[in-house]
Specification:
The structure holds two protein chains of two kinds. By secondary structure, chain A is mainly β. Chain A is built from one helix and 15 strands, in the order E-E-E-E-E-E-E-E-E-H-E-E-E-E-E-E. Chain A has one domain. Chain A has a 15-stranded mixed sheet with strand order 8-7-6-5-4-3-2-1-15-14-13-12-11-10-9. Chain A is about 0% helix and about 60% strand. The N terminus of chain A is likely disordered. By secondary structure, chain B is mostly beta strands. Chain B has one domain. Chain B contains two helices and 15 strands. In chain B, strand 12 and strand 13 form a beta hairpin. The longest helix of chain B has 14 residues. Chain B is globular. The chains are: A mainly beta, B mainly beta. Chains A and B meet through strand 2, strand 3, strand 4, strand 5 and strand 6 of A and helix 1, helix 2, strand 2, strand 3 and strand 4 of B.
Chain lengths: ~240, ~260
């Protein structure tokens, strides 16, 4: 009988095992970030994310955002090691009604390999990356993971390195990232209340322009403010589990 | 002032390109990419007890070109499996590409990116078993089975509309066992199904107009337009997968 018995239920053929809890999920969190104008409060988009912490300490962030006024929509799955060093990113970008590409970015040691499919064909990129770096695939939730090697004991402005994909995916090769340095400073620990609740947050400042408020051992983004650009990104819901 | 402008420029062009593009291209109205979306949650239980076996969340977007993207996250705690999936299909539900990182009872099994170009499927898997690449021919009518149930209704896209008649398709079914020495690649297999007919069913998420199928021994009820799973049961294996929460936008008569 050639009928596929296992279809999509791998458990069908493995009925005997039973587990009280899923050993692969140490904990999870799910949230929504609302994209607003600072001055008017007008909502211009939103982001939904789901983060899983695995038994080896690594984390998987599945994020989806939409910037309605700008005509963007993205899916990103971002995996990082226990210390938040990137492992891999998959991203799918849509801009103004057109699919602009799907990319897989894998990091092995100091090698980053990108394989991107676009409407104009396949693009490959291999380059070296430093030990200390992070990636910016653009959902805001993933921006909270960029300060993992910042030396808090030393404090003050410090340089971090990022691999930043072109969020607009404007050109054929645009989904490939550029590596550059940012200056980031730890301002201090604060208490912050948003519609999602009250959090003890680490306040970070990037390039003296952007303020990030990040909470907990999983570095979850609570608020992201870009005052000169009149942008405010606020965590409006949070659910957690294990 | 010059310094301020220069600083803004630097940040806009290098640091926060998302935001700078967003500012320059703003338009009024809804997101031009998304025709409609739906999201939901399933409960996995046994049919007989019922015992809790796990749960699943999904979010589906339908795009301006008719293609769909399904995000799935499942916690199959009965097997200690956790899969995160991005699955894209064309307007007719033929697969375009899929990305899956799999965690199974023995740990991380690997990540796989699957792409379909015409009649060729290319998959690249990396994980404890190493790097494995696969290129195989695929028929015009086939689907990709990633194991969460949300998109299982998409296996039925070739339904000819005749009730009570045996039909068949093909499925690229992903290896998802607990054996981490086997990379998460798939094989193309036969898939038998039969359309039972249209039924209105009520589940914890609400009442839905569905199409009922026998899918290789499982009874499934899916929505019409987007083929979203409402319920799947398999008496032989004592399984029940039921939609417990449902949310949507611009969903119209699909529900």
């Amino acid at each position: 009988m050639k009928i596929l018995t296992s279809l999509c239920l791998l458990s069908f053929s493995l009925q005997t095992a039973w587990a009280a809890d899923n050993v692969n999920i140490t904990r999870w969190a799910k949230g929504t970030i609302e994209y607003r104008s600072l001055s008017t409060g007008e909502v211009s988009g939103s982001e939904d994310w789901h983060m899983t912490v695995h038994p080896d300490g690594s984390r998987t962030m599945a994020a989806r955002n939409r910037l309605d006024q700008a005509g963007f929509q993205r899916h990103v799955t971002y995996r990082v090691a226990e210390n938040f060093r990137p492992l891999e990113v998959t991203s799918v970008y849509w801009v103004k009604g057109e699919w602009r590409g799907t990319g897989l970015f894998s990091i092995t040691g100091n090698q980053l390999d990108a394989f991107v499919k676009t409407p104009d064909g396949l693009i490959r990129q291999s380059r070296t990356v430093p030990e200390n770096f992070s990636m910016i695939p653009h959902p805001l939730s993933t921006n909270a993971w960029n300060s993992w090697y910042y030396d808090k004991a030393k404090g003050g402005p410090q340089t971090v390195t990022v691999y930043d994909m072109d969020a607009g995916a404007q050109a054929v090769s645009s989904m490939l990232g550029k590596v550059y340095d940012q200056t980031i400073a730890f301002i201090g620990e604060e208490e912050m209340t948003t519609p999602a609740g009250t959090f003890t947050v680490d306040h970070w400042r990037v390039e003296d322009i952007v303020d990030l408020y990040v909470t907990g051992p999983d570095a979850l983004m609570v608020r992201f403010q870009w005052i000169p650009a009149d942008r405010d990104y606020v965590l409006t819901s949070l659910e957690t589990g294990s | 002032m010059t310094k301020f402008v220069a600083t803004i420029f630097t940040v806009s062009t290098l640091l926060w390109s998302t935001l700078s593009v967003a500012q320059s291209g703003d338009t009024d109205g809804p997101n031009a990419n998304i025709l409609r979306w739906a999201s939901g949650t399933y409960a996995y239980t046994t049919l007989s007890d019922p015992r809790d076996r796990g749960w699943e969340r999904f979010h589906m977007n339908v795009y301006a070109d008719g293609s769909r993207t399904m995000n799935m996250w499942h916690d199959l705690k009965a097997r200690s499996a956790q899969f995160t999936v991005i699955h894209r299909v064309e307007a007719n539900f033929r697969p375009i590409e899929t990305f899956v990182p799999y965690w199974v009872a023995n740990g991380f099994k690997g990540s796989t990116l699957i792409r379909i170009d015409g009649d060729t499927l290319t998959a690249s898997a990396s994980g404890p078993a190493g790097q494995h690449d696969q290129t195989i021919p695929v028929p015009d009518v086939f689907s990709v089975g990633t194991h969460p149930v949300s998109a299982d209704g998409w296996h039925l896209w070739s339904d000819n509309g005749e009730s009570g008649v045996d039909q068949s398709s093909k499925i690229y079914s992903m290896e998802a066992s607990a054996d981490v020495t086997k990379p998460p690649l798939g094989t193309v297999r036969d898939l038998a199904f039969k359309r039972i007919g249209e039924e209105t069913i009520t589940v914890p998420a609400g009442t839905f107009d569905t199409i009922h199928y026998d899918l290789s021994g499982s009874q499934v009820w899916i929505t019409k337009e987007d083929r979203l799973m409402v319920r799947m049961i398999n008496e032989r294996f004592d399984r029940d997968y039921v939609l417990t929460e449902f949310d949507n936008e611009n969903y119209g008569e699909a529900r």
